[in-house]
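=== RUN LOG ===
request id: a7f3
mode: sequence -> structure
chains: 1
length: 192
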Amino acid sequence: MEVKTDNMQEQINQINQKLDLVLHYVNEQRLKSEVIEDLVNDLSIIGKDAFTSTVEELDKQGIELNVDDIKSLVFKFIRNINNISQMIDLLESMNDLAKDVGPIITEAGIDFANKLHEYEQKGYFEFIREMAQLFDNAVIAYNKTNTEPTKPYSLWKIMKEINSPEVKQTIGFMLTLLKNISIQSKTNKSIH
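=== RESULT ===
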């Protein structure tokens, strides 16, 4: 009989342990439930305060809200969540692209500025300015020549015109320019 009593006592101890576990679990659930209830109450208070503040501010600003318009807007927002997400993804991709391309554009800008500086040092821009002025003078001279009737020139008159300071200066300029171009061309060929 003692064996039966010991066995029974052991079963009672096991049942007590299991009851202790169940009571512990129930107590934890009760605490969690209280925490959730407190959180809901706090959020409710905050929500009511936020709603009241919003209504008061809208009233101060003279803004009236139509509940149907708000519902419609909320439904549109919910319907377009995928589109909004895609737009955000697109903006993120554009931001990443800008970060990747930014240094390249900066480097290209620096290279462009250096090339412009090099052209300035070589005198290209001054040459273009001079050519533009020369072209302007040539257009004016052409228009003047085009409006005046051209006279036939005799060989003697041509020789006389060649002796004029203006023609001599123009021929001298052209010959000097052609000579310098020839020298520069030979210099460039010998470098390469």
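=== NOTES ===
The chain has six helices and no strands.
Residues 153-192 form one domain.
=== END ===
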